[in-house]
Amino acid sequence: MKEQAPLNIQWFPGHMAKTRRLMRESMGLVDLVVEILDARIPYSSKNPEIRKMVGQKPRLILLNKADLADRETTRRWCDYYRKAGVSALAVDCKSGRGLNGFAPEIRQVLSEQIARFEARGMRGRPLRLMVVGIPNVGKSSLINRLAGGRRAKVEDRPGVTRGRQWVALSDGLELMDMPGVLWPKFDDPIVAENLAFTGAIKDAILDTEALADRLAGRIAHVAPALLANRYKLAEAQLSDRRPMALLTSIGQNRGMLLPGGVIDTERAAIMLLDEYRGGKIGALSLEQPGERRGE
């Protein structure tokens, strides 16, 4: 079933040179970089500049919000990264699921470095980690969970973390939190669209109805049964790819009517985005490993 063309999201998140400079200056202070990605959109939630700045530094990728993604797809993403020589764990930073493997995985990745520390009489030397990722991907949730919720502020909107923070954990790990980093511009409209779907771009600067209609079309393409079951869509409604048709059908089936019987597509859009981001439609992934060029 053919998809609609992606939205043209014009968004320029501002000048990030200070953050990039801070990351480069701090790289020599850490032993390993923890990069947090959104398990639903690992490619789109990966800032290409981070890899350049990390260089040969050991990395651990956390596929966060795994509870909201398709489990089998996330397993294949983990295999994909491991085959590329990068450790990867599927986690949910808010609930803590999967984080019991975090410290053991860090020690496994850094086993040779730990051995060198011990050979130099530095047994017990803290392992220093830099935590990076785009806004709203879960950095503060990770630190709160590992540190018992005492250090980093978490809010469900992008860009809350400001500046650099060090967090000492009880198991011999020290975390350096960095501000969220995004592209200076989006060259790939699918990337921008995926970030908007998941809330990494603020809804206030977007056409919410067009975004929600496009999201409905994407879900109808990758997981039609989930969309049909959640919103009681008939086959004819599910396959209708005319602009706003899916969103209108969803609003109609949920009884979202304005005076005169007009369907309230704005209300339907807000509901659809909220239900997708909250996992109420179901666990689904919008990206598959290896499907995007340059991944």
Key terms for this structure?
single chain; 295 residues; alpha/beta; Rossmann fold; Conserved Hypothetical Protein Ylqf, Chain: A, domain 2; 2 domains; six-stranded mixed β-sheet; 12 helices; elongated
Topology:
Elements: H1 17-26, E1 32-38, H2 48-54, E2 59-64, H3 71-83, E3 87-90, H4 102-109, H5 111-119, E4 127-132, H6 139-146, E5 165-168, E6 173-177, H7 189-198, H8 208-222, H9 224-231, H10 235-238, H11 245-253, H12 265-277
Parallel strand pairs: 1-2, 1-4, 2-3, 4-6
Antiparallel strand pairs: 5-6
Helix pairs in contact: 8-9, 8-11, 8-12, 11-12
Explain what you see:
The structure is a single chain. This protein is an alpha/beta fold. It folds into two domains: 17-177, P-loop containing nucleotide triphosphate hydrolases (Rossmann fold); 189-277, Conserved Hypothetical Protein Ylqf, Chain: A, domain 2 (Orthogonal Bundle), CATH 1.10.1580.10. 39% of the residues lie in helices and 11% in strands. It has helices at 17-26, 48-54, 71-83, 102-109, 111-119, 139-146, 189-198, 208-222, 224-231, 235-238, 245-253, 265-277; strands at 32-38, 59-64, 87-90, 127-132, 165-168, 173-177. A six-stranded mixed sheet has the order 3-2-1-4-6-5, with helices on both faces. Strand 2 (59-64), helix 3 (71-83) and strand 3 (87-90) form a beta-alpha-beta unit. The longest helix has 15 residues, at 208-222. It is elongated. The two termini are 25 Å apart.
